[in-house]
Amino acid sequence: MIHFCTVKGKGYAPAETSADKYHGVAKFDVGTGTQAKSSGGAPSYTSVFGAALADEAARDDRVVAITAAMPGGTGLDAMAERFPARVFDVGIAEQHGVTFAAGMAASGLRPFCAICSTFLQRAYDQVVHDVALQRLPVRCAIDRAGLVGADGATHAGAFDIGYLANLPGFTVMAAADEADLMHMVATAAAHDDGPIAFRYPRGAGRGVALPTRGVALPIGKGRVIREGEDVAVLSFGGHLAECLAAADAFGDEGISATVADARFAKPLDADLLMQLVTHHRALITVEQGAMGGFGAIVMHELARRRAFDKGLVLRTICLPDRFIEQASPAEMYADAGMSAGDIAATIKDALTARAEVVPLRQIL
């Protein structure tokens, strides 16, 4: 037996002595290891989650948290400072972390298992057998959903919508902004009827005003942000602002767009979906997930309700399969087609298309 003992950042002292830095780096001074700090602005989604969860823990001593060697990366360091006995770092052992959370839920606690989307894939067997099939109220806080910039393509959260929404009893949410994230933390804390997951992006939020505390959302209900007549844009996740900007771009052209925030992929707000289908010529779904995610869920519901018989034109904007081949964060974002301009181009294309079902694999 050969036993290898590795040293983090071997050969570079600042990395060797730092517990959770230099996994993904911005510009930094090579001599000192000091990384360039952001110029301020909106707080990160991760920090908003951490603060919101710590506040929930202050009000409910059943709230506990699990991380897999990323207390800082998932924002749980904020809760660990206030309640060190209620935050558990299982090391790089996501499978154990999920089963550990399941045991806590079975004993009456309210566990939040905070794991990045790409790392939760490692524990999928445990999510299926130890959580979903047992209908245990484990709260999956899914950080780094969608594209992740400096963390690299292998860390991008592309698949969690699809791989969680197909499991029995799971509730799956996605935050449109940091205030929405606070509400979803509160929703998860109050949800004891089976497992629940909420996803949010890496990086800074939108700079929206934050509530004093989150409020539990009605399960399975989306919201209409802006009402129009010609086309409907249904957003799921952290790009609602781009959808609104795309709708603004058509004001001078006489095209009226409804913009809605799904909030839930499961259970899907079928009433909202059919309202959008009934009163618009085209429907655009936008998500930072891979093919087979939110758009596929919407398409299945539309097919089940024979909505395509109405001549609806459907377009799905999602992460293309080729995004993992891109060499740099800038290329990844450009390739994803998530900008307001890309969404606007898709709206125009949908309104000029023949009334036919568009294959789901058609991506910008």
UniProtKB/TrEMBL annotation:
Record SMART domains: Transket_pyr
Keywords: Isoprene biosynthesis, Magnesium, Metal-binding, Thiamine biosynthesis, Thiamine pyrophosphate, Transferase
Entry's Gene Ontology BP terms: isopentenyl diphosphate biosynthetic process, methylerythritol 4-phosphate pathway; terpenoid biosynthetic process; thiamine biosynthetic process
Pathway in which the depicted protein is active: Metabolic intermediate biosynthesis; 1-deoxy-D-xylulose 5-phosphate biosynthesis; 1-deoxy-D-xylulose 5-phosphate from D-glyceraldehyde 3-phosphate and pyruvate: step 1/1
Necessary cofactors: Mg(2+); thiamine diphosphate
SUPFAM superfamilies with a match to the protein in the record: Thiamin diphosphate-binding fold (THDP-binding) (SSF52518), TK C-terminal domain-like (SSF52922)
A Pfam cross-reference name: Transketolase_C
Single GO molecular function: 1-deoxy-D-xylulose-5-phosphate synthase activity
Positions of the Transketolase-like pyrimidine-binding domain: 43-208
Alphabetical list of Gene3D superfamilies matching this protein: 3.40.50.920, 3.40.50.970
Entry's EC annotation: 2.2.1.7
InterPro entries: Dxylulose-5-P_synthase, THDP-binding, Transketo_C/PFOR_II, Transketolase-like_Pyr-bd, Transketolase_BS, Transketolase_C
Subunit details: Homodimer.
Family designation: Belongs to the transketolase family. DXPS subfamily.
Main function: Catalyzes the acyloin condensation reaction between C atoms 2 and 3 of pyruvate and glyceraldehyde 3-phosphate to yield 1-deoxy-D-xylulose-5-phosphate (DXP).
Protein name: 1-deoxy-D-xylulose-5-phosphate synthase
Biological source species: Roseovarius gaetbuli
